[in-house]
Amino acid sequence: MRRLVIVSNRVALPGEGAQRSGGLVTGVVDALHHSGGLWFGWSGKLKSARSPPRLVEADGVTYATVDLTRADYDGYYSGLSNAALWPLFHYRLDLVNFTRQDFAAYLRVNALLADTLAPLLKPNDLVWVHDYHLIPMAEELRRVGAAQRIGFFLHTPFPSLGVLAALPHYLEILKSLCAYDLVGFQTIEDLTAFHDAIVRRAGGEVSADGRIHAFDHDLRSGVFPIGVDPDAIADMAARAVKSRTTRRLHESLQGRKLIIGVDRLDYSKGLEHRFKAFACFLEDYPEQRNHVRLLQIATATRSEVPEYCALRQRLGALAGDVAGRYARLDWAPIQYLNRSFSQHSLAGFFRISSVALVTPLRDGMNLVAKEYVAAQNPEDPGVLILSPFAGAAYELDAALIANPFDPGAVAEALQKALQMPIEERRERWRDMMEVLHRNNITAWRESFLGVLGSPI
Ligand code: ADP
């Protein structure tokens, strides 16, 4: 078996991933344990001067991390990655804050990471690079002589050409992507947008099976929707409902139905639209007042990017407005928490929720949608309300699909979910579980690595 090398912006050292283990962490750690391997990336720490990588071995996996300087962090991470590429890839041109200095820092840090990684590579390694922070990595590794197979997976959406072209260096980004041997996306829409840009702006050729010839390179491309481990989540949820935390939440409801939202506090998640839609629901269906509660968990992230602080303030005010308008002496319609919970606690919360509101304005996949479904009680499953702009909607078409830009549609979906007969709930849930089992995290990893490692 070939050794696997994972490259991602942030490496979760052993023990670190437990609190907030997103899909990437779970999928990657499993894969590395399976084949043995190396996980390379930023340590999450800042240093005043560059230092050699730190190597840690645990359970057959080598973790190699580098620290960044403050200037690297500001330009590469907070700047180009999170203030330019992230909003651009999520269709928020109004929030793109591009500077040439940040772009230079992005290239510089990618080159630095490649210089550090190259000596750690073995000739037969399979190298798998993750996400928008590291698009130039293959080009930089090739520059220092790496001849290994290198694949790239984009966890975010890939925007259509009209949006992509707003990035001054978008052709360089396309060229960097074409330096990989395989480029993978979450949905057919992302893949099609990439092909369209290659054909129309880079003069490349794309064949029906996803093979691409562009910038003097041959590569492959495809759709590999990231999954979860539904059985592990189901087990965890079944145990978690008995925990003190979940029981406390359950008792506090006093028989009311719980509607849950769990997100990072990010403008792509559509939280303002969600709060307004919930107010619209309380307005349109007054008989539901006092019978439901919206629990919105929104963990603050990227607080050094100004837009995130502004969003946090607006959301706090909006949650206060909704509560102020509809609360009664013995009922609060909305419970809004800016903290994170363990995966175990979240699984318990999901299981006792009658409805999940997963209504991003744009999202690569949205693993919360899949986690919610996997955590349900098969006898009495809750209902998933899902935005068509989440990658998950391409697979979970048995969810109630509601456009987050239409508060009336989300309000209607809430009413339908709360009144849905048990048979329909079970049928929709079974359909979704079948998809989760078929496209689970192992299938994601094996299908990507299968193509990356296969003869060209
Ligand atoms: P993103 O990658 O944009 O954050 P996803 O929904 O794809 O969105 O993945 C988020 C992951 O982080 C999920 O596994 C989810 O359970 C976890 N998560 C999100 N919000 C919280 C929170 N408040 N506390 C703990 N985990 C969270």
From TrEMBL:
InterPro entries: Glyco_trans_20 (IPR001830). It holds the Pfam family Glyco_transf_20. It comes from the Bacteria. Coiled coil: none annotated. PANTHER family: BCDNA.GH08860 (PTHR10788:SF106), TREHALOSE-6-PHOSPHATE SYNTHASE (PTHR10788). Belongs to the glycosyltransferase 20 family. This is Trehalose-6-phosphate synthase. It comes from Candidatus Rhodoblastus alkanivorans.
